[in-house]
């Protein structure tokens, strides 16, 4: 999407817009009418301060300190102290694309006009994004209720010239980086620090990226299956449409249609299509692929709906209602919907890898591969072929199964039991990213092995689509004639998957 522009006006964004900005493929700018949309709520906050009203986070402390009154003269200092005290994250920094998405989504939330911050805060977030001044945000520290507090404190500190950022590949003090790109630190006013912290946009950012990756990965899994069917002399019959009309889950139908299309015109398949003594029943990992992959597709669709709802929601606290002048403390920052979606998507990604590893193992086993040499080696014994590639896939699947334990049921109370139930959505979204990484490599292993297996069926030719997939694989991985380190093969095909090299076939 080079040249794409995303307008931040407070209206909902799409997952595709978020991903494009996160990857640096699109620019974000403030929309027209931003001041008019945000000014009424700002007026409500300013009146609350001038009237010395008791309003959470404006004239009180935070969390368990909500009953502690703050003098209106210290409203600005309160917001700065909030950012400093909440910047308690630890661990390796988040990837740049996640930070970009967080900046964008934080700006969108504040632009809705229910947070009571000045328009300059939204503009400054977008100016940092435009200049690619990316706050260093540690990966651990959020429990996913009251929002992603610690990560957002690290995201927000650079606005006031504190904390660290990455600029042009270097980590710099925020004040120095702002000066380098011609920006002045902001002086926060009442409620602005709190509004920079409250919300679910951290876990939402990670989910946007994960949903986008999983949509591609599920399609690639169908392609990997098609290659494996040909390598294993499998049957095309389980993918016939009349079968799937009898169990009309949308994802199952879509997966079956795609696999059938990918193997259409295969000489390998045609060589035994009328032989009902051959493969009367293929293994589940082949003939049940649409049922498994389809369930994954339906889970991705569910996660997409949850995220799209969040991308148009007010998730701040307290929420300002300009029409009535009320400032209401509630719980829209609680990440439970996103936590559930992330955990469910993690399970789906794990299963996508689990069934893929079973197909790989079958291709490599001479007792179950319909005549392929052991481990696809030209001289089994002297050479081990792709034996260890399956070990790698098995190790990744095993790790995914551990990571599939749901984070969303692991609430740990915080803030002196004021926040006595939390979503753990941040942790759910973080480990989802790891599982998607692992599953991408598991599918890469299958594609490397299946391509070799299909070629060993010569002179029979594969289907046009799978033949093209093998050409793409062979552009980075040569056929395995003699033993060599196969990690390079796996990582090379992983790169092809992640960069969309197979998208033309899907």
Overall number of domains: 2
CATH superfamily of the largest domain: Fumarase/aspartase (Central domain)
* Low-pLDDT windows of residues: none
Rg estimate, integer Å: 26 Å
User: What is the CATH architecture annotation of the largest domain?
Assistant: Up-down Bundle
Mean pLDDT: 94
What is the CATH top level name of the largest domain? Mainly Alpha
Order of neighbouring strands in the sheet with most strands: 4-6-7
- CA-CA gap between termini: 19 Å
Work out the helicity level.
Answer: 40-55%
Briefly note the CATH topology name of the largest domain: Fumarase C, Chain A, domain 2
* Tally of helical segments: 19
- How would you characterize the largest beta sheet? 3 strands, antiparallel
Classify the beta-strand content into a percent band: 5-15%
- Shape category: elongated
Helix-strand pattern? EHEHHEHHEEHEEHHHHHHHHEEHHHHH
Secondary-structure-based class equals mainly alpha
């Amino acid at each position: 999407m080079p040249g794409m522009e995303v307008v931040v006006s407070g209206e909902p964004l799409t997952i595709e817009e978020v991903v494009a900005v996160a990857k640096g493929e699109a620019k974000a700018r403030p929309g027209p009418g931003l001041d008019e949309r945000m000014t009424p709520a700002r007026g409500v906050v300013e009146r609350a301060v001038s009237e010395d009203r008791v309003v959470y986070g404006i004239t009180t402390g935070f969390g368990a300190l909500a009953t502690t009154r703050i003098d209106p003269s210290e409203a600005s200092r309160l917001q700065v102290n909030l950012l400093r005290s909440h910047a308690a994250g630890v661990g390796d920094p988040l990837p740049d694309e996640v930070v970009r998405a967080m900046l964008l989504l934080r700006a969108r939330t504040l632009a809705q006009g229910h947070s009571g911050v000045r328009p300059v805060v939204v503009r400054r977030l977008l100016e940092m994004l435009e200049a690619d001044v990316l706050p260093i945000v540690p990966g651990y520290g959020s429990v996913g209720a009251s929002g992603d507090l610690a990560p957002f404190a690290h995201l927000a500190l650079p606005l006031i010239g504190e904390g660290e950022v990455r600029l042009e590949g270097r980590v710099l003090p925020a004040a120095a980086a702002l000066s380098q790109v011609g920006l002045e630190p902001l002086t926060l006013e009442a409620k602005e620090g709190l509004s920079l912290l409250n919300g679910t946009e951290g876990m939402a950012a990670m989910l946007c990226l994960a949903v986008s990756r999983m949509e591609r990965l599920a399609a690639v899994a169908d392609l990997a299956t098609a290659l494996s069917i040909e390598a294993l002399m499998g049957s095309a019959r389980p993918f016939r449409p009349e079968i799937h009309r009898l169990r009309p889950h949308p994802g199952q139908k879509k997966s079956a249609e795609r696999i059938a299309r990918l193997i259409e015109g295969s000489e390998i398949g045609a060589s035994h299509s009328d032989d009902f003594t051959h493969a009367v029943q293929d293994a589940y990992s082949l003939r049940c692929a649409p049922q498994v992959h389809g369930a994954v597709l339906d889970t991705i669709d569910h996660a997409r709906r949850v995220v799209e709802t969040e991308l148009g929601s007010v998730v701040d606290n307290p929420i300002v209602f300009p029409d009535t002048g009320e400032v209401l403390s509630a719980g829209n920052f609680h990440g439970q919907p996103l936590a559930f979606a992330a955990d469910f998507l993690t399970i789906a990604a794990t299963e996508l890898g689990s069934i893929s590893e079973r197909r790989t193992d079958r291709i490599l086993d001479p007792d179950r591969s319909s005549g392929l040499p052991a481990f696809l080696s030209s001289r089994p014994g002297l050479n081990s072929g792709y034996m260890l590639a399956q070990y790698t896939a098995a190790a990744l699947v095993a790790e995914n199964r551990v990571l599939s334990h749901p984070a969303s049921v692991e609430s740990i109370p915080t803030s002196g039991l004021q926040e006595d139930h939390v979503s753990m959505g941040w942790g759910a979204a973080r480990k989802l990213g790891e599982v998607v990484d692992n599953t991408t490599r598991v599918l890469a292993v299958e594609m490397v092995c299946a391509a070799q297996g299909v070629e060993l069926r010569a002179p029979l030719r594969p289907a046009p689509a799978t033949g093209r997939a093998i050409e793409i694989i062979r552009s980075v991985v040569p056929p395995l004639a003699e033993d060599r380190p196969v990690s390079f093969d796996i990582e090379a095909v992983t790169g092809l998957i992640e960069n969309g090299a197979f998208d033309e076939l899907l």
